[in-house]
Amino acid sequence: QVQLVESGGGSVQPGGSLRLSCAVSGFILNYYGIGWFRQAPGKEREGVAAISVSGGSTYYANSVKGRFTISRDAAKKMVYLQMTSLRPEDTATYYCNGGSTWGRGTQVTVSS
Question: Which of 5, 7, 65, 80 shows the greatest Cβ crowding within 10 Å of its Cβ?
């Protein structure tokens, strides 16, 4: 069964860091780039970062450039989102996506 499972969310103070992980089953990594999205209460889901099938290309939303880093470990079938200098506006449920497959999300809360 093809699925994506996120982990690593939690509560952190402004300026803190978290690393999200996305475990990718099946052959998704062979065919699709992987993206991280987030959705805050009352807001639309937005793209945060993405990495290509080869891992050679990445994309970041302007709001997270210079603070977030996406990476992948194909051997472990894992995709990571390293988040630093976190801000209250980064608070959201973060989702991993590959093709038409979505994970269930992991909550990130940034608050003092």
Answer: 80
Tokens describing residue 66: 């210079």
Distance CA 20, CA 112 (A): 20
User: Encoding tokens for residue 94?
Assistant: 């973060």
User: Encoding tokens for residue 97?
Assistant: 């996506």
C-alpha 26: how far from chain center: 19
Q: Beta strand 101-102 with 92-98: parallel, antiparallel or unpaired?
A: antiparallel
The tens digit of pLDDT for each residue in 43-86 reads 999 999 999 998 899 999 999 999 999 999 999 999 999 999 99
Q: What are the structure tokens assigned to 26, written together?
A: 């099946």
> Could you tell me the end-to-end alpha-carbon distance of the chain, in angstroms, rounded to an integer?
40
Q: Which two tokens stand for residue 35?
A: 């993206």
CA distance 1 to 58: 27
H/E run at residue 93: strand 92-98
**How far is CA 72 from its chain centroid?**
11
